[in-house]
Design a protein that fits this description.
The chain is an alpha+beta fold. Among the domains are: about 90 residues, Helix Hairpins, CATH 1.10.287.110; about 110 residues, Sandwich (HSP40/DNAj peptide-binding domain), CATH 2.60.260. α2 packs antiparallel against α3 and α2 crosses α5. Helix content is about 20%, strand content about 25%. β5 and β6 form a beta hairpin. The protein is elongated, with a radius of gyration of 41 Å.
Length: about 400
């Protein structure tokens, strides 16, 4: 093996840090003992690791380029024939981690105190008219907000976080363990500062150092026209404030539409049922059907005198059968995304009288006589099939 560290890694003398790291990762994947346990390969792996330990450290590399001994005085964890290296860099070589090996042995730095807050979800019940035409509601929400005393810093007024003396602000500490490869150094979050790299000597008494407190506040929510049960309205930045006074998450308002006494919603259409007496269905009639807009009109509001259409006349033609459906176009729910409105589908149910006095029975018998229906036969409809159900049953179970 060459004694030149650059040649050992296969890089030029003017190679930058990224090129050195890339070369080391490539060789480590080939030479690591878990991949190739051959003794000669293990020795070469130690040489490659030793070269990377020097060339990845700017100070040691400068000393090596000037002809000095970068391992003098046991620096870098080497002693005699032993080899020291960062276990973090080995893991990076195999799993593509982003940590580099500096004077601290490849640490990734302290984790930030300030982080984005979580999103929040609240459910809101609205009536059908409010969901169809849009409405504005006020909500009381209980979320984490910025601490008013420390403004999110977590430190008591007049104080500030200080650098952790244990890790020197890196947020990590080096733990050395001996193995057959030499000294293995692993990076662990600093126990003193919990990986932040700094310590708050005097936490804020209001938030206990978290930078946020819980508070109830009132928000105005604009519900767009056309929403339905399950629709979520997003309010950006109205969720939980993050730790350390970090940016707030989003608040999602999930809509639940309450039942309506007249209409049942089906997509953008409104379904309703109208019951008419048998005589009205036979002779024909008209009914006034209230529209959904009628729910928007308050008798004491200024809208009560407006031109808002609140009802429509539905014509029941003579001879209308029970189950007949009529479509009133353009009176349904406005589209949430796009233009236009759905329809109102009116289903007619003909009500047959259950109690008749003597005179009513006499008149109905007279009518039945006039229509030749004193003893009418029922008709079985096959609903579009060419053969009746009974025909198919006879074919299936009849004599063979």
């Amino acid at each position: 093996m060459s004694s030149d560290l650059y040649e050992t890694l296969g890089v030029s003398r003017d190679a930058d840090g990224d090129s050195i790291k890339k070369a080391y990762r490539k060789l480590a994947r080939q030479l690591h003992p878990d991949v190739n346990p051959d003794p000669e390969t293990q020795e070469r792996f130690k040489d490659v690791t030793r070269a990377y330990e020097v060339l990845s450290d700017p100070e040691k590399r400068r000393m090596y380029d000037l002809g000095g001994d970068p391992f003098s005085g046991g620096a870098g964890g080497f002693a005699g024939a032993g080899a020291g290296f960062s276990f973090t860099d080995i893991m990076d070589a195999f799993f593509g981690g982003g940590g580099g090996a500096g004077a601290a042995g490849g640490g990734r730095g302290p984790r930030p105190r300030t982080r984005r807050g979580q999103d929040a979800l609240i459910r809101l019940e609205v009536d059908l008219a409010g969901a169809a035409f849009g409405t504005t509601r006020e909500l009381k929400v209980d979320t984490a907000v910025l601490c008013p005393l420390c403004s999110g810093s977590g430190a008591a007024p007049g104080s500030s976080p200080t650098t952790c003396e244990t890790c020197g602000g890196r947020g990590e500490t080096i733990h050395v363990q001996r193995s057959f490869l030499g000294e293995i150094r692993t990076m662990r979050p600093c126990a003193a500062c919990r990986g932040y790299g700094s310590i708050i000597p005097e936490p804020c008494r209001e938030c206990s150092g978290d930078g946020r407190v819980r508070s109830r506040r009132t928000l105005t929510v604009k519900i767009p026209a056309g929403v339905d049960t399950g629709t979520r309205v997003q309010l950006s930045g109205q969720g939980e404030v993050g730790p350390g006074g970090g940016p707030a998450g989003d608040l999602y308002v999930e809509i639940h539409v309450s039942e309506h006494p007249v209409f049942v919603r089906h997509g953008s259409d409104l379904l309703c049922t109208v019951t008419v007496p048998m005589t009205a269905a036979a002779l024909g009639t008209t009914i006034d059907l209230p529209l959904l807009e009628a729910d928007l009109v308050d008798a004491d509001s200024e809208e009560s005198g407006s031109d808002l259409e609140t009802a429509v006349t539905v014509e029941i033609k003579p001879g209308t059968q029970s189950g007949t459906e009529m479509v009133l176009g353009g009176h349904g729910v406005p589209s949430l995304r796009g233009t236009g409105r759905g329809d109102i589908v009116v289903k007619v149910v003909v009500e047959t009288p259950t109690r008749l006095d003597d005179r009513q029975q006499e008149l109905l018998r007279e009518l039945a006589g006039l229509r030749g229906e004193e003893s009418p036969d029922g008709h079985l409809h096959t609903a579009g099939h060419s053969r009746s159900m009974f025909d198919r049953l006879r074919e299936a179970f009849g004599p063979r």
